[in-house]
């Protein structure tokens, strides 16, 4: 991460309501998609005729079934959540356009994307991921700080399968575009080179603060780096980037796979770079360039709290395959200066100190991951916590450090035993988040995998 985390960079302006109205009036925009961020960090919504959106939806919003925030990744409704279920008749929620979060994507000419905020009884819906993050931004502001977030995201570029298999059929083996270690390569196979060029161009047109892209060490692995900005804007931009990169890949007969561990030898991370600011200035370091007391409190809060909130950073069964020794993914909760074997890496130059949280996988809901990070930072500040000694050298050999959970079941049990989630998010939200994680775990408890059958045949 090379961006300066000390000051707000110049970032392309998203559209505002006036520009959207003008584009609708002159026919530039014919379709407006109003999209909610669901429990899994995906965009879900409706495509509206532009005129209808301008005269009705822009002011009054749109209704959608609340099960969008209470279903598993296959959209199987989760009953008994208190938000949505048979006992409530699967009632609607109101989606109000956020007219400060409007994007025009070059991959969808003539269409505009508008983020929606979920509302219930005229109040923001507490379990909406966007609201969960906004609450933690407000908690941090109450301590006198604001955060800048830089996103460093990895994904795997694959050849798209000919067709999606049925429920009882296994997916075909993944076919990455390129199988050699191409970390920092400047020459690429044509499909990879074309993909990089197209995504960089499309992101610029969409006003995303994408700084750079490169190929990584894993088969077909690509990394994208974003300039730092505010937490909700950073999460919105990354969510749009995922949709944009998949659209670009689709036009090339490929797909962009945001999977934490597409194979056992490589993993895709979602590295989140965080700096804290007060009155427009960074508070991360002393005048001598050392880690400030505030930064130490924040680091300690994350190291002490994130182990109990791990399902928000590693939400799938697959995510835990990424935490392996000597994989560049962490296996213990420790911190160090410029140490990529640690869960929390302090990095940046003398006047650009920030922390990089290396735990979240590519499958994380970035809104929830950032909410967990900011929430634990507040805990660290409130308790004047100390991070302890830094880890020097190989953190994989640091046997005295707290290990990262090895399964979603283990992480979820810890989430439920601790009162931290309820203290940070409130009991209603904490229970909802636990249910979401349990839906993911249950999906694998209720199926027999091809690997199990293979081993049984050899027994």
Description:
- With 459 residues, this protein is of the alpha+beta class.
- It folds into two domains: 17-123, Ubiquitin-like (UB roll), CATH 3.10.20.70; 136-166 and 175-458, Creatine Kinase, Chain A, domain 2 (2-Layer Sandwich).
- It is 32% helix and 22% strand.
- The protein is built from eleven helices and 17 strands.
- The strands form three sheets. Strands 7, 8, 9, 10, 11, 12, 14, 15 and 16 form a nine-stranded mixed beta sheet that branches. Strands 1, 2, 3, 4, 5 and 6 form a six-stranded mixed beta sheet that branches.
- A hairpin with a 2-residue loop joins strand 5 (111-120) and strand 6 (123-124).
- Helix 8 (408-417) packs antiparallel against helix 10 (427-445).
- It is globular, with a radius of gyration of 22 Å.
- 49% of the residues are buried.
Helix and strand topology:
Elements: H1 17-25, E1 31-37, E2 43-49, H2 50-60, E3 62-65, E4 92-104, E5 111-120, E6 123-124, H3 129-142, E7 146-159, H4 190-205, E8 210-215, E9 221-226, H5 231-251, E10 254-257, E11 270-278, E12 281-282, H6 293-305, E13 332-333, E14 335-337, E15 344-347, E16 354-357, H7 366-382, E17 402-403, H8 408-417, H9 420-425, H10 427-445, H11 450-458
Parallel strand pairs: 1-5, 14-15
Antiparallel strand pairs: 1-2, 3-4, 4-5, 5-6, 7-9, 7-10, 7-11, 8-9, 11-12, 11-16, 13-17, 15-16
Helix pairs in contact: 3-7, 4-5, 6-7, 8-10
């Amino acid at each position: 991460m090379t961006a300066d985390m000390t000051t707000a960079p110049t970032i392309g302006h998203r559209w505002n309501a006036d520009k959207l109205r003008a584009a609708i009036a002159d026919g530039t925009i014919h379709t407006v998609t109003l999209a909610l961020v669901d429990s899994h960090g995906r965009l879900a919504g409706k495509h509206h005729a532009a005129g209808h959106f301008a005269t009705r939806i822009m002011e009054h919003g749109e209704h959608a079934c609340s099960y969008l925030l209470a279903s598993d990744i296959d959209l199987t409704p989760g009953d008994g959540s208190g938000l949505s279920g048979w006992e409530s008749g699967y009632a609607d929620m109101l989606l109000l356009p956020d007219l400060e979060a409007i994007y025009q994507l070059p991959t969808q000419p003539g269409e505009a994307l508008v983020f929606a905020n979920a509302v219930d009884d005229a109040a923001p819906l507490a379990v909406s991921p966007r609201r969960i993050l906004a609450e933690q931004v407000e908690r941090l502001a109450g301590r006198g700080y604001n955060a800048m977030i830089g996103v460093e995201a990895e994904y795997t570029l694959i050849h798209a399968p000919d067709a999606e298999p049925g429920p009882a059929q296994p997916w075909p083996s993944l076919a990455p575009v390129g199988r050699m270690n191409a970390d920092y390569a400047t020459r690429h196979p044509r499909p990879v080179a074309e993909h990089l060029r197209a995504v960089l161009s499309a992101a610029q047109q969409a006003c995303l603060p994408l700084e750079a892209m490169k190929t990584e060490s894993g088969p077909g692995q690509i990394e994208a780096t974003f300039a730092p900005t505010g937490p909700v804007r950073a999460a919105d931009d990354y969510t749009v980037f995922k949709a944009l990169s998949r659209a670009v890949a689709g036009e090339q007969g490929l797909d962009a796979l945001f999977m934490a561990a597409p194979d056992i030898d490589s993993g895709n991370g979602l590295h989140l770079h965080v700096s804290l600011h007060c009155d427009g200035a960074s508070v991360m370091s002393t005048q001598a360039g050392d880690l400030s007391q505030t930064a130490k409190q924040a680091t300690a809060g994350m190291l002490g709290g994130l182990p109990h909130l791990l399902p928000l950073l590693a939400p799938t069964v697959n995510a835990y395959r990424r935490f392996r020794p000597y994989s560049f993914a962490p296996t213990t909760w420790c911190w160090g200066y410029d140490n990529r074997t640690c869960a929390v890496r302090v990095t940046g130059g003398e006047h650009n100190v920030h922390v990089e949280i290396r735990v979240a996988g590519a499958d994380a809901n970035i809104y929830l991951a950032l909410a967990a990070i900011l929430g634990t930072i507040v805990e660290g500040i409130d308790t004047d916590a100390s991070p302890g000694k830094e880890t020097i050298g190989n953190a994989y050999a640091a046997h005295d450090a707290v290990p990262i959970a090895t399964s979603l079941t283990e992480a979820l049990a810890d989430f439920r035993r601790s009162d931290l989630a309820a203290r940070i998010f409130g009991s209603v939200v904490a229970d909802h988040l636990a249910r979401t994680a349990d839906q993911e775990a249950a999906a694998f408890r209720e199926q027999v995998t091809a690997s199990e059958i293979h081993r049984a045949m050899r027994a």
